[in-house]
Design brief:
Shape: globular
Number of strands: 11
Radius of gyration: 13 Å
Order of helices and strands: EEEEEEEEEHEE
Number of helices: 1
Structural class: mainly beta
Strand content: over 45%
């Protein structure tokens, strides 16, 4: 059984940092493309960054303006998202998603329905 679980969210002040983690089990993680999405209340789910099994990174959202960094540790079956200089507009539920093929450039990020597995999300709230 595949499990995907996000952690690391919380409430912070603008300008602070958070590091999200996504742990997986039941996947051949080292051969799986992983991505971060977010969804703010009343808005559609937005793809942020995708990282291929070999570390290749694709971006879609320009809202992070270089403030977010995706990474993975294949030995730990874990995906990360380092978020620096957080802004109130970053407030959202953040989701981790797995696709057992490739990022495909920004294809996965713009087609979240192509995910094979989703976590339940971790809430990030940024106050000014």
């Amino acid at each position: 059984q595949v499990q995907v679980m996000e952690s690391g969210g919380g409430s912070v002040q603008a300008g602070e940092s958070l590091k999200l983690s996504c742990t997986t089990s039941g996947l051949t993680f080292a051969h799986t493309a992983m991505a971060w999405f977010r969804q703010a209340p009343g808005k559609e789910r937005e793809g942020l960054q995708c990282i291929s099994w070999n570390g290749g990174i694709d971006h879609y959202s320009h809202h992070d303006q270089g403030r977010f960094t995706i990474s993975r540790d294949n030995a730990k079956n874990t995906l990360y998202l380092q978020m620096d200089n957080l802004k109130p507009e970053d407030t959202a539920m953040y989701y981790c998603a797995a696709r057992t093929t490739f990022c495909g450039g920004t294809y996965f990020l713009t087609n979240p329905d192509k995910a094979n597995y989703w976590g339940r999300g971790t809430q990030v709230t940024v106050s000014s």
